[in-house]
Structure formats: C-alpha cells, structure tokens
C-alpha cells in the first residue's frame, strides 16, 4: 500500500503496528466446516487436536485457536497442515465443498452453504474467536476527496450491508 498501488484495503485478522490508519469495521464470526461426505470418512471430531488427522484447507493462518463453548477459559491452539493452501476465502470454500477437507472461514462467506447443509460445523463444543475486519489506508494531507468520501461512507454504512 505504501508503494502507491492502492489507496485503501480491507484486511482481516490482527494487524502489525504500522504507519497506516486502521479503522475497525466489525468482528466477523468464524466457522470450522466440512462436507458431510468428507467427515463421514473419519471418526467424529470432538476436540481441536483431532484436526491433526485431517486435511485442513488453510490460508495465511497456520495456527487455529479455539475456545470451549461451555468453559471459554479453556483454549487450544493447533498447528494446522493441509495439501491445499491459498489466501482466497472463496477458493478455500470451493475446495471444502469439493470434499477436500476442513475449512475455517468467516460466517459471512458461507451462510448459504451452511443454511443448505452443503457444509456442516465440525465441532459442537469448540469455537474460533471472532476475527476483526479493518479498513486500512495511508493518512496524508493530499488524500483525494473521493477517497475521503468513500471512507466516511464505509464507516457510516458498513453494518447495513451485512
């Protein structure tokens, strides 16, 4: 961004400290999902450590953190491996729909697939903490007016479109 290729980007997850302006827009619920066909080939997963015996479809996050729904003080961090890795949530979702493994994606990406039961939740008692979504841009006194207007529009209206 600093190189001048983009005026503004949207980023999920924790951000590194930088000279950029980071405006938090929302915390996105995250789901751990797979197809029934994929899951039927294995014993039922009951604990996040069971993921070590599965193909996980991963992006840039190589450790998945879970908390217990019954006792949120119980937390587990698991190193994830898989044959399919990419940084495109839609491609990861398509791979999971093709019975290639277990995926972790924002609920926003998969609401219809979950509603249609094309993908099902892997765990009953474990969940992934919500992931923040940020709007990130460079602050400078020469910012184009249309960018200022767009930023203000997003800040004021983002939640209406979810």
UniProtKB/TrEMBL annotation:
A GO MF label: DNA-binding transcription factor activity
Signal sequence segment: none
Domain of life: Bacteria
Protein name, entry field: LysR substrate binding domain-containing protein
Family classification: Belongs to the LysR transcriptional regulatory family.
PANTHER family: HTH-TYPE TRANSCRIPTIONAL ACTIVATOR TTDR-RELATED, HTH-TYPE TRANSCRIPTIONAL REGULATOR
Single biological process term from Gene Ontology: DNA-templated transcription
Cited InterPro entries: LysR-type_TF_proteobact-type, LysR_subst-bd
Limits of the LysR substrate-binding domain: 3-157
